[in-house]
């Protein structure tokens, strides 16, 4: 009886996580995420799955980010009806993120169909609808960390804290195939040690194969103390310039971390001088989920959040839920800190704020997370002098700052350290990274840890049941 792992997403890119595990007659899907980036990239979401959704016995979801969860409604729409195992906090966050995704899918379809009607073209259907999303929620099987359960006759599962966002999980799978037992460990998106709010990623010692993300496999982040000082210096500089500050932020994870840091360093960073806006209904809802799950935080962060359930963390923080409240911010030309989605600037309210501010020389744009190829955020990071928004060319005169030290992903050193804790150097499969990042990390792991590394291509299948030596030889 064979055990095989097929790579069906995030092979040479960061988004679209999806991997098919076959254990004898059983099929388990690890993640089912949206592909994000350019229009061409995102069009691939409509392509048929390279498997029969109805034949999948179970899904294991590492965390709520849409590039890991965003095609679950499509999977259910096309016939999947099994359990979806994930951390209990992830189920709460997915109810926010998937509903928002469906809203955007329906909105984009309506917008496209207006143009098609005028041209006499065939109308398009949204990728999925709110009704499809609600069907996903009925399948969730929420778990706690460190809870080992049998999910199928040949498969046992345990989730460990990945330290990336609330509820993010490292997936441990014990697989039985006749006389051969194998253990697969999937990192999901691995967080960073020593960062505010969340616990450090759990250390795992045993595996026969490790499926490892490589988002930042080619770089090192600034340490936290240097990042704190960088932000202090930036806020001092920006206070002198008296413009607005735009912070594109992922609604789940990055936004809550930023709010925590603003509360903790409120006086040191001179934040009382600013009007702070959280301009994202989804981020506002997600912040409430974080507050309800603060037992998952590290000790210092948990205490701060518990204390501030009664007392507001930031006295000058305003939640702007409605479109009208959001539009009113654009009347402010100086003294506003605007935190808005999307994190890669590919949609959401941040694009409106860029339209009204990016051309101002006294404006600052703080990029605090990974920007995938083809996104507007990546264009800004790469130094574009002009950007296009709703058919209009906007000059970029604002200062763009990339704050790599706020990243929620482990860097090369973090990924290497986490892998180094495994005994006997199991074969490691690198996914969820652009080609340069994966190649650099692979060379580093081989040179420093003598690790057997594989960088699979899309649809490539790997065996977990070959004998140990042959198995490792295949990774050289």
What does this structure look like?
With about 475 residues, the chain is of the alpha/beta class. The chain contains 15 helices and 22 strands. The strands form 4 sheets. The chain has a 7-stranded mixed beta sheet. A 7-stranded mixed beta sheet has the order 7-8-9-10-11-20-21, with helices on one face. Strand 7 and strand 8 (about 155-160) form a beta hairpin. Helix 4 (about 90-120) packs antiparallel against helix 5 (about 130-135) and helix 4 (about 90-120) packs antiparallel against helix 8. The relative contact order is 0.14. The mean pLDDT is about 90.
Low-confidence stretches: none
What would you report as the Rg, rounded to the nearest angstrom?
22 Å
Q: Quick one: biggest sheet?
A: 7 strands, mixed
Query: What percent strand?
Result: 15-25%
Number of helices: 15
Rough outline: globular
What assembly state would you assign to the polypeptide chains in this entry?
A: single chain
How many angstroms does the end-to-end distance come to?
A: 25 Å
> Pairing-aware structural class of the strands and helices?
alpha/beta
For the biggest β-sheet, the strand order reads: 6-5-4-3-2-1-22
Number of strands: 22
What is the typical, i.e. mean, pLDDT?
92
């Amino acid at each position: 009886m064979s055990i095989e792992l097929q790579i069906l997403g995030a092979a040479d890119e960061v988004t679209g996580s999806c991997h098919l595990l076959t254990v004898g007659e059983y099929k388990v899907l690890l993640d089912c995420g949206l592909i994000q980036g350019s229009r061409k990239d995102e069009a691939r979401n409509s392509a048929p799955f390279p498997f029969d959704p109805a034949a999948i016995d179970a899904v294991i979801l590492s965390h709520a980010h849409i590039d890991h969860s965003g095609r679950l409604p499509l999977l259910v729409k096309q016939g999947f009806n099994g359990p979806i195992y994930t951390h209990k906090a992830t189920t709460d966050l997915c109810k926010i993120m998937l509903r928002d995704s469906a809203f955007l899918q329906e909105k984009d379809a309506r917008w496209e169909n207006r143009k098609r009607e005028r041209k006499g073209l065939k109308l398009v259907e949204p990728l999925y609808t709110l009704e499809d999303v609600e069907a996903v929620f009925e399948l969730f099987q929420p778990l706690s960390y460190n809870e080992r359960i049998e999910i199928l006759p040949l498969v046992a599962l345990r989730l460990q804290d990945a330290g990336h966002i609330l509820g993010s999980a490292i997936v441990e799978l014990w697989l039985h195939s006749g006389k051969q037992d194998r253990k697969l460990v999937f990192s999901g998106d691995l967080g960073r040690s020593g960062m505010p709010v969340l616990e450090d990623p759990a250390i795992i010692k045993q595996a026969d194969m490790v499926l490892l993300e490589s988002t930042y496999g080619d770089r090192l982040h600034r340490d936290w103390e240097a990042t704190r000082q960088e932000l202090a210096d930036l806020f001092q500089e920006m206070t002198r310039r008296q413009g607005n500050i735009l912070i594109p932020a992922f609604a789940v994870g990055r936004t809550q971390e930023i709010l925590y840091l603003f509360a903790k360093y409120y006086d040191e960073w001179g934040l009382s001088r600013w009007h702070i806006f959280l301009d994202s209904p989804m981020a506002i809802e997600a912040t409430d989920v974080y507050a309800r799950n603060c037992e998952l935080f590290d000790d210092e962060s948990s205490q701060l959040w518990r204390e501030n359930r009664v007392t507001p963390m930031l006295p000058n923080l305003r939640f702007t839920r409605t479109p009208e409240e959001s539009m009113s911010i654009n009347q402010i030309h100086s003294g506003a800190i605007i935190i808005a989605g999307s994190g890669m600037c590919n949609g959401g309210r941040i694009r409106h704020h860029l339209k009204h501010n990016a051309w101002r020389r006294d404006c600052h744009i703080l990029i605090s997370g990974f920007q995938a190829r083809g996104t507007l955020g990546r264009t800004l990071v790469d130094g574009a002098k002009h950007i296009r928004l709703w058919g209009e060319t906007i000059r970029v005169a604002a200062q763009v700052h990339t704050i790599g030290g706020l990243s929620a992903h482990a860097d090369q050193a973090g990924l290497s350290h986490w892998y180094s804790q495994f005994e006997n150097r199991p074969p490691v499969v690198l996914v969820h990274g652009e080609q340069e990042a994966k190649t650099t990390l692979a060379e580093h792991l081989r040179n420093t840890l003598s690790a057997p590394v594989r960088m699979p291509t899309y649809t490539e299948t790997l065996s977990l049941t070959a004998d140990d030596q042959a198995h490792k030889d295949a990774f050289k």
